[in-house]
Amino acid sequence: MKLEWWKALNDKQLDAIVSRVQQSNLTLVQARERRAAASAMERSASSAYLPNLALSGSATGSTGKINIDDISRRPAQINLETGWEIALFGQNELTQKAASLERNMAAEDVEAAKLSVTAEAAISYVRLRALQQQRGNLDGLSSAYAKSKNVAAVRSKSGLGSSLDTQVATDESRAIEQQKHGLDNAIAGEIQRIAILQGLPDGDGALAAKASQPLPARAFVAQVPAEVLRQRPDVRRAEWNVLKAGADVGLATADLYPKLHLSGVIGFGSPVSGSLFGVIGGPSLQIPIFDYGKRHDIVEARKAQMREAISAYHQAILVAHGEALSALRALSVARQETLRANAAHATAKKSVAAAELLARQGLSDQSVLAARQIHAAENRRLLIEAIKDEAEALVALARATGGNLTSAAQGAKNNSDPQRKSRS
Fold it and tell me: What is the structure's pLDDT at 52?
């Protein structure tokens, strides 16, 4: 079934973040205002080819006593003026079409901004949860190195080991503490980044609490490739731009032909000599004869812009195709790595459990247990990174396909269950 693509990450808190981002992100707000402006311009696009009406008045004074017949110099006038440029060659339809296409492009800009900021929020959230998991993993690693350090110290005192082993364990513990500080800073940075995406100055303190990683579902691209690519806002915008360029060529060509105007004035004061009230009006025809080739140059410029728009559309298709293929390959590789890392971590956990059993029975010393715990922590680190990389690859696929993903619920369940068990 078709879904809101970020829900393929199976995280309710991420769903809430995305909802706030799509409502309050300032980049998205700006794009919506540009769409509103384009919609307003679309509504008024053809008004230039409709009759218009205006009321004008004037008053003048002089010291002379001579009657003035010049209507522009009458002492007082109130006129109702009307004008109408008749679209003889379809200029009104072309103007309306161009404005509608401009509004369509603004709408695609909104969709592109929504897809972009939503993807950024999802990636930041995925990284935040991975960093928190890595921070917790370092706590376990610290405990294992502390145990290794104690064993090394005992062996050194008893003459069964070297003081160098103790120093190595100490250095490793210090390095882990430094890594913790780095992870704390990175966690704070992701929380702040999510706040900015929501249009907020400060991060949400609730995000600082450690939580499970988002587990990507088995999402697929269900439609044929051509239909998938046409879901991308940048491809749709490029398509609309080609059509608008064609309308602009038509408008420029229409300027090569005569223009017919109808105008009239109804006035008091008056537009007719010797009368206080009068009506004048009539048609006027403008025929372009010689303008140094200006109109023809404009037509050629519009045709060049149309060819440019066509090339840009082809380029958008090529870029979209390349990004989609790359994203599919990356997701496939990431899924395989997650499966491998999950299996390796499960094996390492069993090894630790076996070492703990032997240690309790006195059949193995603590150094073996510490070594296996360190090995398990390293495998857990790799699993955390693999889950993060798979989630990021899913986000990349969503961006590459315009968010056109379909989820197989059973696949999602099969994918997530072993990973959840591995983190318990």
Answer: 79
